[in-house]
Amino acid sequence: MYKIEYSKTAIKKLNKIPKNLVKRIQNKLTEIAQNPYRENPNLKKLVGREGYRLRIGDWRIIYEINNDRIVILVLYQIRLISHTKRY
């Protein structure tokens, strides 16, 4: 199993989000740590650099795999704006 490490930026973001979401993120990361190369529809390899992007709801987690470690670099939230047409 791979060891999970967090960047300072990721730790700051984790401290600001709700605890239930932190638990959900940690559960997904634990699954990935068991086999980081397993097929996952919510996981994409980054283009133009090393690393991966994991989708958990409207949150994205950017991480790299270094030897036997998974380093969580950034967590961010996608805010989708719905546009409704009025006629």
Automatic annotation (TrEMBL):
It comes from the Bacteria. It comes from Cyanobacterium aponinum (strain PCC 10605). This is Plasmid stabilization system. Pfam families: ParE_toxin. Keywords: Toxin-antitoxin system.
